[in-house]
Amino acid sequence: QDSRCGLTGAGYRGILCSLPGEKKEFLQNGPDLQDFVSGDLSDKSRWAEYKGNLKREKGERLHLPPWLKTKIPMGKNYNKLKNTLRSLNLHTVCEEARCPNIGECWGGGEYATATATIMLMGDTCTRGCRFCSVKTARSPPPLDPQEPHNTARAVAQWGLDYVVLTSVDRDDLPDGGAEHFAKTVLHLKERNPKILVECLTPDFRGDLKAVEKVALSGLDVYAHNVETVPALQRKVRDPRANFEQSIRVLKHAKEVQPGVISKTSLMLGLGETDEQIYATMKLLREADVDCLTLGQYMQPTKRHLKVEEYITPEKFKYWEKVGNDLGFHYTASGPLVRSSYKAGEFFLKNLVEKRKTKAI
Amino acid sequence: MYTKKKRVFAHVLPLANIRVSEYIVLVRNPEHCCQGSSLLQTGHSAKRPQLWMCRKGWTPLIFANLSYSSKDQVTIHFINRDGERLTTTAKEGESLLEVVVNHNLAIDGFGACEGTLACSTCHLIFDKDAFQKLDAISDEELDMLDLAYGLTDTSRLGCQVCVKKWMDGLTVRVPMDVSDMRKQLEVGKQSKQ
C-alpha cells in the first residue's frame, strides 16, 4: 500500500521471515516495548543479570552496560546554571569534557544543591591526552584578566557551600597559570570566607614554585589527578605528564601547606590489572594522599582510546573497601564517580563525622 | 520521467557556475568522463545514469556516481598496531589524520589534539622512499614528534602529511604503544616457559 517507501505489508513480512533462525528466536525472547516503557531495564536490581560483554576483545567495541546510562540533562536549575555561565564567559569542565553526570550535578539532585566545576583559563588545553575531549591547541587564546573576579561573582550568585575549581593545562604560560588560579581562590575567599574551595590543578610541568603558589592561596582541598596506573601513563596521558611528576605535586602541596587535604583520581577500564590498581593505591597512600576517587573511563569521541573493560558496580564497591582499609580519609568509588562528583557532600559528610567522633 | 535538460560542453564548465543536476555534460571522448566528473565535484551525484542521444563526435557524460572518480582517489594502507592491514581510499589534500578519523579506521587514541600540533598521537612510520618525498618538517612538528613513543628516522605526524597523488598504494605503519610492547614481551616470556 505504501508505495513511497516501496514496502507493502507483505513485502515487510517477507523481510522478517528471511531472518536466520537464531535471530528470530532472539527477537521473540528478548525485550519488547513493554519492558522499555515500564522502566524495568534501568532497574538497579536487574544489573547483575546483564549478559553483555564487559571485557573488550580484539576488533570489538563494547556496548554501554545499563549502570552507565544516564538521563538527558534538562530542567530549571540546569538552564539557570548554563545561562549564568554563558553571561559571565565562564567554562565548566562538565560541558567541555562531556561528563555523564552533568544532568544530575547541575540539576541539583534531591536536595537542590547544584554543583559545577568551573574550568579556569579558558576551554582550550595545550596538551592532547588520549582520554580527554577538551579542545586542544598549540597556542590557546590569552587569559581573561576578569576571570578571577567573574568566577567569584558567579559562585556568590549561586550561593554554593563547596566549589571545585579546575583548569586546562597552559604550558604556553611561564608559570602555567598558577598566579591566575591563586587569584581566583583569593577572590572567592574574600567574598565568602566560609566557602570550601577545592582546586584540581594541572602538574605545571613539575614546577614546584607554581604548586606552592596555589597551595598557599587559601584553598581547603588540593587535588591533582594521576589518572591511571604507572604502567599505562605513557599510553593514556600526554607524554609531558607522568606518574612521578604528579606524585611530587601532591607531596609538595602537603609540605608547604600541612593543613591542606590532598586528593587524587584514577580511571579504571583502560586495561589495567587488579595488582596494578592495588599497587598504585598503596603508592598514593604512601605519598600521604587523603582522598581518592575511582571512576569508569568512558570513550568521549572516536578519536580517543576505546574502553578496554567495563568494571561492575560490585567491583567498584570492593575497591572502595580496599581504599578505606588502606587508610584514605574517603574513597569515592563508582562507575560514574568523577573527581569532583558530589565532592562537597563527601567532604562535608566526612568532616562532620570526624568532628562527631572527636567530640565523643 | 522525462525532463528536458540543457546540454553543456565540458570545457566550459570551469568558467560557468552551474548546478550540475540541471545539465547534461557533453565530453569529447570517454576518457574525459573522469575529468569531467572531477570538475563537477560540487557534491551532487546523479543516482541514475542518463544516456542521451546527441550529435556525432560528442559523447554524453554518464552521470553514474559523480562523487567517485578514479583519478583523485588515492589508496592508502595503514598497518595497525596489532599488524592488521586497514585499506581505504582518500581524496587528495586530506591529511592522514583526517583519513583515519573520517573513514572510521579502527586505530584508537589517534589524533587527540585534532591536528593542532599539541600531541603526538597521530605518529606514523613511513618507508624510506616515501619519507623522503614528503614535505619538509616544521619546527613545531619536530617538537611534538620528539615526545612520541617509538620514534624512528622515518616518523612523521599524520596530521601534517597531506595525501598527494603519488601516495597511491602507500603503506604506513602505526607504531606500537609502550603497553603493546610490554604485552609482547610478556607473551614472549610465557611462550618460552
From TrEMBL, chain A:
Keyword 4Fe-4S: yes
Gene Ontology MF, one: metal ion binding
Top-level EC class: transferase
Keywords, comma-separated and alphabetical: 4Fe-4S, Iron, Iron-sulfur, Metal-binding, Mitochondrion, S-adenosyl-L-methionine, Transferase
InterPro entries xrefs: Aldolase_TIM, Elp3/MiaA/NifB-like_rSAM, LIAS_N, Lipoyl_synth, rSAM, rSAM_sf
Cofactor(s) listed: [4Fe-4S] cluster
Catalytic activity reported: [[Fe-S] cluster scaffold protein carrying a second [4Fe-4S](2+) cluster] + N(6)-octanoyl-L-lysyl-[protein] + 2 oxidized [2Fe-2S]-[ferredoxin] + 2 S-adenosyl-L-methionine + 4 H(+) = [[Fe-S] cluster scaffold protein] + N(6)-[(R)-dihydrolipoyl]-L-lysyl-[protein] + 4 Fe(3+) + 2 hydrogen sulfide + 2 5'-deoxyadenosine + 2 L-methionine + 2 reduced [2Fe-2S]-[ferredoxin]
EC annotation from Swiss-Prot or TrEMBL: 2.8.1.8
Cofactor binding description: Binds 2 [4Fe-4S] clusters per subunit. One cluster is coordinated with 3 cysteines and an exchangeable S-adenosyl-L-methionine.
Compartment(s): Mitochondrion
Chief subcellular location: mitochondrion
Residues reported to bind [4Fe-4S] cluster 2: 125, 129, 132
Positions with a binding annotation for [4Fe-4S] cluster 1: 94, 99, 105, 340
Annotated ranges, domain Radical SAM core: 110-329
GO cellular component: mitochondrion
GO BP of this protein: protein lipoylation
Pathway(s) this gene product operates in, as recorded in its UniProt entry: Protein modification; protein lipoylation via endogenous pathway; protein N(6)-(lipoyl)lysine from octanoyl-[acyl-carrier-protein]: step 2/2
Database matches in HAMAP family: Lipoyl_synth (MF_00206)
Sequence similarity: Belongs to the radical SAM superfamily. Lipoyl synthase family.
Name assigned to this protein: Lipoyl synthase, mitochondrial
Source organism (scientific name): Zosterops lateralis melanops
UniProtKB/TrEMBL annotation, chain B:
Name of the protein in question: 2Fe-2S ferredoxin-type domain-containing protein
Cofactor(s), by name: [2Fe-2S] cluster
Keyword Nucleus: no
Iron-sulfur among keywords: yes
Pfam families according to UniProt: Fer2
GO terms under cellular component: mitochondrial matrix
Keywords: 2Fe-2S, Electron transport, Iron, Iron-sulfur, Metal-binding, Mitochondrion, Transport
Domain named 2Fe-2S ferredoxin-type: residues: 74-178
SUPFAM superfamilies hit by this protein: 2Fe-2S ferredoxin-like
PROSITE patterns to which the protein is assigned, alphabetical: 2FE2S_FER_2, ADX
Main location: mitochondrion
InterPro entries: 2Fe-2S_ferredoxin-like_sf, 2Fe-2S_ferredoxin-type, Adrenodoxin-like, Adrenodoxin_Fe-S_BS, Beta-grasp_dom_sf
Gene Ontology BP terms: P450-containing electron transport chain
Protein family according to the UniProt entry: Belongs to the adrenodoxin/putidaredoxin family.
A GO molecular-function descriptor: electron transfer activity
Subcellular location: Mitochondrion matrix
